[in-house]
Amino acid sequence: MKIHQKYLLRCIELAKKGLGTTAPNPMVGCVIVHQNNIIGEGFTDPYGGPHAEVNAINSVKNKEQLKEASLYVTLEPCSHFGKTPPCADLIAKHQLKEVFIGLQDPHNKVAGKGIQKLKEAGCKVTIGILENECREHHKRFLTFQEKKRPYIILKWAESNDGFLAPEKSLRNSNPEPFWITTPYSKQMVHQWRSQEQAILVGTRTVLEDNPKLTTREWSGKNPIRVVLDRHLKIDASHHVLDRSVQTIMLTAVDDTSKHLEGITYEVLDFAQPLAQQICDILHRYNITSIIVEGGAKMLQTFIDANLWDEARIFKGTIDFKKGLPAPRLQGTLQQQQKIWTDTLFIYRND
User: I need a labelling partner for 31 at 20 to 30 A (CA). Which of 14, 178, 196, 235 fits?
Assistant: First the structure.
């Protein structure tokens, strides 16, 4: 392995520490090397905090070494004032001699301007180190910038014989989830929730399961709850309207007298394709990634519109024989693993 690739791999490894906290900013990793020794490292702080390059430079004990050092970073250093000053200016200020960048930033406020600033400051800049690996790492940010929508993860659990839920006679009268998978799979789902910005469900899922859509089984932030409720059938007795988490209701009802205080409402045109409208709204809210958890109709809406990037499907051992059929999709199987007695299949939409 070439030495530049080795240092970029370390940048990616560091960057993953920001998963679930940096959005809508990208989770960037940075390494500073002096005479073949790493003298500084950093990754992006939670949103609003310092970027990876700032943290890496601040971690260097002897700042005089920076003039003879090389900086490696997964994404082009920013060149504009946002929540923090431009990273390109800080790199130029410390006169680093070389910068190796995984990817050019597609954001219209950066898009080569950071690279240009570095070159004008006398920095030698190399772009495209481990470009494919950096694109995979930055898939949420890149999807948001390039496709103008969030990175969309479809997720469901199905019985061994392909049903999302059994027929109603097999369920309790009180609304609650019917668990197909084991507690280990449930914990993994809660970990995923902590990693993504938002989670989306439909009316039927809320009325039948009364989910909380939080990260109770994992340490981390709760995702923004997004609920599709055309006629506002969901009332305040349901967990999704308890105001404990930021919640966006997507509805056809524009009568504000029926809107609850503390909940955000967005009105959709249900005569038009829904998946694209939802994506447009989420983009407006700077939501870079979302898990679509159900129900079957909601999942199929995104599948039919070809608006999805990953599908994470658990298959349990139970057989229902009849019930609500699981969605069907065409995708490339990327991963298959056992989670105790469950099997997890991860597909990508290529």
Answer: 196
Q: Using one digit for the tens of pLDDT, what is the confidence trace for 28-71?
A: 999 999 999 999 999 999 999 999 999 999 999 999 999 999 99
- The confidence score (pLDDT) of residue 170 equals 64
Catalytic residue among 53, 76, 196, 293: 53
290-299: pLDDT as tens digits: 999 988 999 9
Active site residue 68: no
Q: What is the pTM of this model?
A: 0.94
CA angle in degrees (0–180, nearest 5) for 302-324-344: 65
261 contact partners, CB below 8 Å, separation of at least 6: none
Q: Which residues contact 94 (CB under 8 A, 6 or more apart)?
A: 57, 63, 66, 67
Q: Helix, strand, or coil here: 94?
A: coil
From residue 310, how far is each of 133, 217, 271, 330 by CA, in Å?
Answer: 17, 23, 27, 11
Three-state DSSP class for residue 196 = coil
What was the pLDDT predicted at 179? 81
> How far apart are the C-alpha atoms of 151 and 14, rounded to whole Å?
21
What distance in Å separates the CA atoms of residue 169 and residue 213, rounded to the nearest whole number? 25
